[in-house]
Every structure is written in structure tokens, then in C-alpha cells.
Amino acid sequence: MRTKDRPQLLRRALDDVLAQSLTDWRLIIVNDGGRVAPVDELVSARRTAMAGRVEVIHVEGGSGSMEAAANLGAQQAHGEYVVVHDDDDTWDRDFLSVMTRALDADPEAVGAAARTEIVFEKIVGDKAIEIGRAPFVPPGEMVSMYDLLQTNRVVPIALVVRRRVYDEIGWYDPALKAVGDWEFNLRLVRHGRVIFVGEEPLAYWHQRPHATGASSNSVFGESLDHMQFDRMVRDRLLQEYIDKNGIGGLLYLSKYIEETARHYSLQQTVRRAVHRVTSRLRIGRRRS
């Protein structure tokens, strides 16, 4: 669980984990450069309920990126499965139970992604007030490379990964200050099959589109970083592809796409122009 100076959200996240119907878990909190006292106070208030299942790592000055913080937590995990529960997201109370059962039943799968719902909210005082919801699912209700090539389809709160897989494919890239979960998912799906779980939403991705500062989501508060690091990941992998396969096919494909897009754009422009002219002619006839 990554956190930094969001005690009102961390309080909810801690209670969310404690509410899980499956109790065989261990929580590792990475306080990534935030104030120490609020985190320790919230954990101490739940010490009895935690029953020795919690560890807190305070990173003075911060780890440098969200991905570096995720690595600090995941590397301390010794169970069979790992999931990143950020301090602003939540689960259905049966999330851990359903997801681990699904992976137990499919030992060849490297991970499992839960049906996810976006929860829109705003911060009022020390509370988060819900203002709406929307579904967030991979197209076709499956996790595929085809879809991940376009954009990230699985957010951390919804993804349970076998712990051994980190040793096999590597950790989150600490150099990425954004889109690190997407880059990890690209490697994960190349490595093996990720199953899609849940007829109903089991994971809730909370978003605060208008929040600023510590309460904001990185997808909104750091949108420029998302765009730049998205381009960086694509460029790095494109270079690897060119080193192995040459540049000829990509040159052809990029020009073909550009010319095709221009052709259809011209067709649409002509259709709109013809529609406007014929509409005016009809109006003129009616008036006459």
C-alpha cells in the first residue's frame, strides 16, 4: 500500500483491508516521503485488528517514483500472491477470497484481473464524497496484448500477481514516474495468461478529477507525465523492435496509416459539403 500525506484516504484503505472476508494476508505500507506521525497513528489505532499482519516502511525524502515505492513493498512480500492496494482505492469485501480462489484453480495463469468500477468522488473536509460511478473493464472482458498496446486496461487495485512472477519478469521500472503499471502489464501479458474475474465489480478505482495537491490522482494531477512517459515506453520498445526487425515495415505502415486516414478524412469532408449543398437546395425549393 503506497501512501503519502493522505490520512483521510489511508484511513479508508486500512479499514478496507481489515474488512476482507479472507484474513490470511499481510499488509506492507510504504509511506513514500510523507509525514510519519499520521501513518503511525492510524496503524496504531488498528493494532489489535491488524493482529501482527502489518509492516510500515517510512521512506525519508521519498523513493523517487510510485514504481520504486511499489517495489519496496512487493520485495518484502513473502506470500504466494501480491496486489498493490493504493491508499485511495477500495475492494469488495470478497475481493481477496474470490481472486485467490480463481488463481488456485488455474495454476498456469500468472495473474488475475478483477472487474473494476470507477468511483468518482470529491474531498470535503476530511471525507471523500461519492459523486458518481462508471464501469472500467477490458473490451471483451479479457486481458489481451491487443488492448494493452493502446492503453492500460488493468489498474493496480484490480490485479493480483503470483509472487514468483516478479522474479521472472522483473519489478516495476523505477525510472517511470507515471505509466509504470501499464509497462509492467505489457511484460506480464507477454509472460503468461492473465485471467479476467468477476461477474460483478470486485475492485473500485477511485478518481477525483478536480482535486489538486496530495489528494489528486496521478492520471489527472500528473497528466503531462503520463503523456511523456507513455511516449518514452513506446519509443524504447519501438527501438528494440527496429533493432531486431529493421525499419522498412514500420516506414511502410506509418505512411499507409497516414494516407488512409487522410483519404477517409477527405471523403468525410466531401460528404459534409454535399450534404450542406443538398440541404440548401431542398430549402430553396420549399420556399419557391
TrEMBL record:
UniProt-listed InterPro entries: Glyco_trans_2-like, Glycosyltransf_2, Nucleotide-diphossugar_trans
Official protein name in the record:
Glycosyltransferase 2-like domain-containing protein
Q: What region holds the Glycosyltransferase 2-like domain?
A: 3-119
Task: Cite the Pfam families for this sequence.
Answer: Glycos_transf_2
